[in-house]
Amino acid sequence: MTRPLDGITVVSLEHAIAAPFCTRQLADLGARVIKVERPGAGDFARAYDTRVNGQASHFVWTNRSKESLTLDLKQPAALDVLKSLLATADVLVQNLAPGAAARMGLSFDVLHKLHPALIVCDISGYGEDGPYRDKKAYDLLIQSEAGLLSITGTPDDPSKAGNSIADIAAGMYAYSGVLAALMQRDKRGGSGQGSHIDVSMLEALTEWMGYPLYYAFEGATPPPRTAASHASIYPYGPFQAGDGGTVMLGLQNEREWKLFCEVVLKNAALATDPRFDSNARRNESRDALKAIILAAFGALTTAQVVERLEEAQIANARMNSMSEVWAHPQLQARGRWQTVGSPAGDIPALLPPGRNSSFDYRMDAVPAVGQHTEAILRELGQSDAAIAALQTLNAI
């Protein structure tokens, strides 16, 4: 079955997470993604750790199904190769340092004149203009600037998200932006012209901060940091069972509160206790209610607590470890894990979210540094002598 992006070529000057996360998803849909890396070391994310058979966890996650082309873009001969490649491409994605692509003659304005159909997606910390344009941006710094740390953690300690949420947000908007630009270019009656997408990590994560921003509208008190609990709904969050396991639960209305008291806590009278007979009162009396819940759960195992919550049809979840997620029965039952190749052998990989009845996602190997360089150069018409000359210059 053909995939939605079969026949689309994406060239990416990418490192770390935001751009690779975007382009891996384009590859999932069938696009040919040519990843331009530095000769030798390649994308510096390759060296973040060695947790996956000697390979970096971030890298194997975001770089399957790509081709690796090594070019030293500081050398004119290598830059000429890249420019020749762009003549055959549909999309350029880049998240180099601010201004780096433009200094190499790879700004949208320059490229649009040469290749009017080319879509250019620039990903940066703060966007291509404004007072923060040249400011360095890493995931933790953007989490801080976007206010995420101010509402995440405990009352005493702000905490960052445990994954690269700012990079992921930017990668998602870059991905959807590229899809929209391809549709705009290629739809019936469209102009056939490429467009420029300017994605800011700050703007992407600030969009995801919409609820707390509006909660604090016009100077109102912002949501407090409540660890894994909800800022305004209670009981909602983690509670420990007698065997040391943690159960997450969430009550949304008074009907569920009544069932929770009757079925889970086995204390029907508690439902009408004036301290707890509305969400607002339960929220005000968190400490007292928490002690009651923990006393009841303390006499039960995690499995017994979950069984009672299921009987009462109260939303709940286990707080799984990474090993438990690898073995999650729901992911196993739906066949969400597949095997992909890598330079260090086969590894498991999660299928992209969203099963589609009309095509299968592309799930190809994670590339070695420069694995496809010679093949791509030959596609561009480079002779063996020309390739050897580039190798002598260490340009590839």
Verbal overview:
By secondary structure, this protein is an alpha/beta fold. It folds into two domains: 9-208 and 330-392, Crotonobetainyl-coa:carnitine coa-transferase, domain 1 (Rossmann fold, 3-Layer(aba) Sandwich), CATH 3.40.50.10540; 236-319, formyl-coa transferase, domain 3 (2-Layer Sandwich). Helices cover 38% and strands 13% of the residues. The protein contains 18 helices and eleven strands. It has helices spanning 18-28, 57-62, 76-86, 100-103, 108-114, 139-145, 148-151, 165-186, 201-208, 210-215, 254-264, 279-284, 286-297, 302-311, 322-326, 329-333, 373-379, 384-392; strands at 9-13, 32-37, 66-70, 91-94, 119-124, 196-200, 236-240, 246-250, 315-318, 337-340, 347-350. The strands form three sheets. Strands 3-2-1-4-5-6 form a six-stranded parallel sheet, with helices on both faces. A three-stranded antiparallel sheet has the order 7-8-9, with helices on one face. The chain has a two-stranded antiparallel sheet with strand order 10-11. A hairpin with a 5-residue loop joins strand 7 and strand 8. Helix 1 (18-28) packs across helix 8 and helix 8 (165-186) packs across helix 9 (201-208). The protein is elongated, with a radius of gyration of 26 Å.
